[in-house]
Amino acid sequence: MALEEYRRKRRFGVTTEPKGAPTPRKRTKKLRFVIQKHRASALHYDFRLEWDGVLLSWAVPKGPSLDPSVKRLAMHVEDHPIEYAKFEGVIPAGEYGGGTVMIWDHGTWIPDDPDVAKHLAKGDLKFTLDGKKLSGSWVLVRTRGYQGGKSWLLIKHRDEAASATGDVTIDAPRSVVSDRLLAEIAFEEGGDVRQAVTADPPSAVEAALRDPRTAKRKRKRAPAVWHSNRPT
Ligand code: MN
Questions:
Q1: Containing structural domain, residue 45
Q2: Contact indicator for 77, 55 with CB cutoff of 8 Å
Q3: What domain count does the chain have?
Q4: Is pTM, for the whole model, over 0.85?
Q5: Separation of 57 CA from ligand 1 center, angstroms?
Q6: Cα–Cα distances in Å, from 175 out to 2, 103, 227?
Q7: 82-102 pLDDT per residue, tens
Q8: How many A from CA of 210 to the centre of ligand 1?
Q9: Does the pLDDT at position 54 exceed 80?
């Protein structure tokens, strides 16, 4: 659990992602989790669990599913700083992970067994989520002999929060902190709107375009027009 790899991959000062405190404080409060929808070279959902002063991280290409019969590939990636849980915005093009990031869900998590290190080593981590979109019992299991041990599966357990119908990534596409679609984040933060919009559900984009609030959105600057009644 260290941030060397995270820091090595990034140029702080170019990207606005956090560097992470030199000595992360140990927390006795509830453990946080965050899922960041990230349209980089490809869309994925970064699933992060606070543990031992960092965010344990997995990249889930298709995002989570509430259907217990669906197993979603989750690639174990480098630990991220705790402060990363607050990051929503744009990573500059050309930088590591360049693209748009949305805080898709967040909340707290509880491991079924407090010996998390043992279960990470074993490749079988069961836990409960209490988020805005995801809740109840889940498991991360490592697959055998594929991608050098970095390949895991994220699976929902059967409980009252499970659902075999619908798709939570389509039905709940907006940020839980700003209520924005990915394209709206890119637009407001100076990112690549054309790239970001490819990761929003077309139905949600259509609905946003029909929303009268979109049409009434205030311009940030006065339009550059020439007034013929200007005194001469
Ligand atoms: Mn990512």
A1: 4-180
A2: no
A3: 1
A4: yes
A5: 9
A6: 28, 5, 41
A7: 999 999 999 999 999 999 999
A8: 30
A9: yes
